[in-house]
Amino acid sequence: NAGEVDTQGAEIAFNYYVTNNWLVDFNYSFFDFEVQSAQLGDRLLPNAPENKFNLGVGYRSPKFDAKVTYRWVEEFDWAAGIFVGTVPQYEVVNLSGNYKVNERFGLGVDISNLLDDEHYEAFGGDLLARRALAFVTVNW
Predict the structure, then answer these.
(1) Cβ count near 21 (within 10 Å)
(2) Residues with Cβ within 8 Å of residue 91, at least 6 apart in sequence
(3) Each residue of 90-133: pLDDT tens digit?
(4) How far is CA 3 from CA 34, 45, 140, in A?
(5) Would you tell me how many other CB atoms lie within 10 Å of the CB of residue 69?
(6) Single pTM value for the model
(7) pLDDT for 36-72, tens place per residue?
(8) Tell me, what DSSP letter sits at residue 126?
(9) Which of 15, 95, 130, 135 would bridge with 111, disulfide CB 3.0–4.6 Å?
(10) DSSP 103
(11) pLDDT greater than 90 at residue 1
């Protein structure tokens, strides 16, 4: 894409430590743009939503930590090559957890899209479903 675009936006984030073990976090992002000039036939889009936010709750102790997050993304238009259309609003819940077996080994799990809300985040992109990853960490 070639042209001139004015953009503006803002982000805000809060972390609140309920106790030494519990954390609540929140962030919000606003993005806006205005096309000043574009080549004939070209559609300039940021391929990003105007509004989105995340909310999370986490727990951490010396042996165990876990976090659940909620992400909301507003519907937005997309244009990249032959892929032109709308990315519908979507919501995703993620879960992660780690357990420290000892000083050397740990076990963990990351589950993206816990509620299995099939959606896409880029027009023409992959249809995303639940994805779970279990792992072992080794420290030396």
Answers:
(1) 13
(2) 70, 71, 72, 73, 117
(3) 999 999 999 999 999 999 999 999 999 999 999 999 999 999 99
(4) 11, 11, 52
(5) 17
(6) 0.87
(7) 887 776 778 889 999 999 999 999 999 999 999 999 9
(8) P
(9) 95
(10) S
(11) no
Helix boundaries (H) for 10-140? none
Q: Which pair of tokens denotes residue 130?
A: 């639940």
Sign of CA dihedral 38, 75, 25, 12: positive
The tokens for 114 are: 């816990």
Question: 56 and 16 in contact (C-beta within 8 Å)?
Answer: no
Please state, as a whole number, how many other Cβ atoms lie within 10 Å of the Cβ of residue 130: 14
Token code pair at residue 132: 């779970």
3-state class (DSSP) for residue 37: strand
Total residues belonging to the chain? 140
> At residue 13, what is the residue type?
A
pLDDT over 80 (residue 3): no
Q: Taking the CA of residue 69 as centre, how many other CA atoms within 13 Å lie in the half-sphere pointing to its CB? A: 15
The pLDDT tens digits of the residues spanning 18-37 come to 999 999 999 999 999 988 88
Question: What is the DSSP pairing of strand 76-80 with strand 83-87?
Answer: antiparallel
